[in-house]
């Protein structure tokens, strides 16, 4: 797969999976079909929109490819008619979100690299692309934001995956393999956090010292 094809494919895939998570939040809130459309679209394009705005991309990616809005609408319709079949919508939401992160972070990294951004900015855009749509979804849906869930690897997973991609490309690894390693790293860290309890130490208040 050529670099010109890789990033658009990743964008389409991440928008689809994030849109599914947004529609699941709408189902948990028992919204109507318009609410499903809203949450699916907000979640699907949120991270990529902020990424493109920060990078000065004009127009942003979904304006260039309006078919992405059709994709979010289809995702919302699918969930609207099938969510009741799921035994645990929250469990499915968590795993779909982890998959979406693993796709969106390399997409953000790839777009940032195409603009000639510095490695630090490339990592930051990977994190932004992966986290912002889900953050909007959870805040607007009055859910505890996964990005702020105590002790879990979320932003850390996106940051780690983006760093892996940048380091591999800096040492000459082909771009496609670096982005694949990024995706595996993000998903592995997030899954490890959910299944095995991997986490960073949290701040614990201590008595003041005289």
Keywords:
single chain, 210 residues, mainly alpha
Summed up:
With 210 residues, the chain is an all-alpha fold. It has 8 helices and no strands. It is 74% helix and 0% strand.
Provide a descriptive summary of the structure in words.
- With 210 residues, the protein is an all-alpha fold.
- 74% of the residues lie in helices and 0% in strands.
- The protein has eight helices and no strands.
- It has helices at 3-28, 33-55, 61-64, 67-82, 89-114, 119-140, 155-170, 175-196.
- Helix 2 (33-55) runs parallel beside helix 5 (89-114) and helix 6 runs antiparallel to helix 7 (155-170).
- It starts with a helix and ends in a 14-residue tail after the last helix.
- Pfam families: Gly_transporter (PF03458).
User: Biggest sheet: strands, sense, closure?
Assistant: none
Percent helix, as a range, is over 70%
Along the chain, the helix and strand elements come as HHHHHHHH
Number of strands: 0
Number of helices: 8
Beta-strand percent range: under 5%
How many angstroms does the end-to-end distance come to?
A: 63 Å
Overall spatial form:
globular
* Mean pLDDT figure: 93
Q: Write down the Rg.
A: 17 Å
What are the segments in which pLDDT stays under 50 over at least 5 consecutive residues?
none
Query: Which class of secondary structure composition applies to the elements?
Result: mainly alpha
Family: Belongs to the UPF0126 family.
Main location: membrane
Subcellular location: Cell membrane
InterPro entries: Gly_transporter
């Amino acid at each position: 797969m050529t670099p010109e094809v890789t990033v658009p494919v990743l964008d389409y895939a991440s928008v689809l999976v994030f849109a599914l998570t947004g529609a699941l939040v709408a189902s948990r809130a028992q919204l109507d079909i318009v609410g499903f459309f809203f949450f699916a679209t907000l979640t699907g394009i949120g991270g990529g929109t902020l990424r493109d705005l920060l990078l000065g991309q004009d127009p942003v990616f979904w304006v260039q490819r309006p078919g992405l809005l059709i994709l979010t609408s289809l995702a919302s319709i699918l969930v609207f008619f099938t969510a009741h079949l799921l035994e645990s919508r929250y469990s499915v939401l968590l795993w779909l979100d982890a998959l979406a992160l693993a796709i969106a972070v390399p997409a953000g990294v790839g777009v940032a690299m195409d603009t000639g951004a510095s490695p630090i900015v490339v990592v930051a855009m990977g994190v932004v692309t992966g986290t912002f749509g889900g953050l909007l979804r959870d805040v607007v849906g009055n859910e505890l934001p996964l990005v702020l869930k105590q002790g879990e690897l979320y932003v850390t997973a996106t940051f780690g995956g983006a760093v892996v991609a940048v380091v591999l490309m800096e040492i000459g690894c082909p771009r496609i393999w670096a982005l694949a390693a990024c995706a595996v790293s993000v998903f592995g860290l997030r899954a490890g956090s959910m299944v095995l309890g991997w986490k960073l130490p949290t701040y614990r208040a201590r008595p003041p010292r005289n």
